[in-house]
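Write out the bound-state structure for SN-glycerol-1-phosphate.
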Amino acid sequence: MVGEPGPTLRYVSNTTGVARHAILIDPADQTPEMAAKRCMAAVSAGSSMVLVGGSTGTDMGNVHNTVIAIKEALELVTWASSQDSDLDEESWIVPIVLFPAGAAALSPSADGITFMMLMNSTTPKFLIEEQLAGAPFIRQAGVETLPMGYVVCAPGGRVGEVGEANLLESGQNDRAAAYAMTAQSYGFKLLYLEAGSGAHTPVDPELIRTARESCNLTLIVGGGIRDGATARRAVEAGADWIITGNLTESFDDADELQRVLKEFISTMNS
Ligand code: 1GP
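---
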């Protein structure tokens, strides 16, 4: 509980100089079976984490069912690869982390939860109230918390609206620096710069660069990233993790998704 960081936070914070990719699964957009299929394709392509969450339409039921389906699928293939010396068992062991809209969309079976403050929200609901509502459940379930500052950047999309965010605009580098410093001063371990799911433009690389130079937190960037070259620009600016949601959801065929993500991750780190 208090003291040493848990295994999921150690894994997420272990930035080795090579940026990693995480797939975001929105339980409101797909069945648990489809989510599991997409996660298997993503992990086999080299994705290193599964985030589960969405701004609207998630609840305890669909979040938990989705987490369970993904977990079972990954455990099965981990077991299968432990029986086959040609397959790498370790590469299938990736954490399933909740990325919740609020306290009403959690699962006790996740490996961790981004326990976040939407730092540029203008409502106490996302600054502290949802956290207060969710903390007892999270403690009771024993889900590991990953303390995270979450900053919604322009254009912001649905999460910017729902979160009533005072968007961080391109060019507001001093403000980006102040959020990064504040996140570190609060003791958060992760900082997520979010452009909003489906954003027409991703987070401005200058904002990423400024945040990178202003804190030593693990830097996560997502929203509107649809190709490896865009991801590479975010990585060159300092991102440790790149998150994609929509890109993944645009493929129903597992083989095609695997191929696209493999190419994406390779370009991202080229
Ligand atoms: C949203 O940053 C994530 O929270 C992912 O965004 O769906 O645009 O990839 P996309």
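---
Residues 120 and 166 are 6 Å apart (CA to CA).
The beta strands are 20-25, 49-52, 96-98, 112-118, 144-152, 190-194, 218-222, 241-244.
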